[in-house]
Structures are given as structure tokens and as C-alpha cells.
Amino acid sequence: MERYSLLQRLLHWIIALMVFGLLAVGLTFMALEDEGMKSVFGEEITATLFKVHMTFGILLLVLMIVRIMLRFMQPTPAYNPPLVGIEALIGKGIHLLLYILLIGLPIGGWLATSAENMPVQFFNMTLPSLLAPNPELAHTLFEFHGLGGVAVLLLVLVHVAAALKHWLIMKDNMMNRISLP
């Protein structure tokens, strides 16, 4: 097998787009935390951004679970040429960390929002709270959620740099494994 299945490839690119969008909104939250989101965007736009961020975060969690199930059910195509040494170790490590963070961040956001005693919204549904209200815990969880987002950004940058290296410099057909066409 030379390529991931079409469903795996679609999930990869859909998740990638969602991660970029979630990072953009999350970094906006972090950048405007001191100035106050409501004072910059207004209350209605801020509420909409939070709802969209929560909705796509939960959707990301669901898609990641599907992606992990597919990974166990379908074989992983071999690298051609095979990765060896430190490159193989770094590649596996980055993928593992991305999977952990892309499962953990939505759960952490859900926990933080619950502890903040705010509704956890998924489209127009309100999901159950996972924690009792606890403002101190909410603050800590939101801090970790933000740091996790920064970690995802850094890992994605390394992942993209490696993909570009294989595609544009090495021209070793590595991108064929995950490309859509």
C-alpha cells in the first residue's frame, strides 16, 4: 500500500484546516485577553467567536477519534524511501504529540469552560458540564489550554516544514501518501 485511504486523507486535510482556524481564533483570544475581547469586537461577535471555537473544538475531538480508529483498522503505508534514525524518531514523536494534543485540547477546553460555569456549546446544543464551577481551576485550565495551543502551533510548523522539505527539496514522493489528488 503506497497511500492512506481516501477517507484518511480527507480527514487529515479537514482536520488540518480546522486546526488552523482554531489556532487563529485561540491566538486572537490570547492576544486580546488583557484588552478584553468584548471591548475589541463587541459582546455579540465575541460570543459568536467563543461558540464557533467550542463547536469546532468538539468537532475536532470527534474527527480525531474517527481518525485514530481508522489508523488502527487500516494499515499505514510504508515510507518510500524509509525514514531512518533521528528523522524517523522525530516524525513519530511529532505525530504522537499532535494526536495527544488534538484529543486533549478539546477535552481541556470543555473542562475549563465547565469550571468557568459557562455553557459548552456544540452548534446550537448545550453539552453537559464536566466539572462543578471553580473559577481558580477554570483559570488554570484555560492557561494550560492556551499553552497546548501554542505547542500545537509549533508542532504543526515543524510538521509542515518537514512536508515541504520532502516535497520540494528531496522530491521523494512522500507527499503522495497523504495528498488528495
Automatic annotation (TrEMBL):
Its cofactor is heme b. Keywords: Cell membrane, Electron transport, Heme, Iron, Membrane, Metal-binding, Transmembrane, Transmembrane helix, Transport. Gene3D superfamilies: Transmembrane di-heme cytochromes, Chain C. It comes from the Bacteria. GO terms for biological process: respiratory electron transport chain. It holds the Pfam family Ni_hydr_CYTB. Residues 3-177 form the Cytochrome b561 bacterial/Ni-hydrogenase domain. Its main location: membrane. It is found in: Cell membrane. One of its GO terms (molecular function) is heme binding. Belongs to the cytochrome b561 family. This is Cytochrome B. It comes from Chromatium okenii.
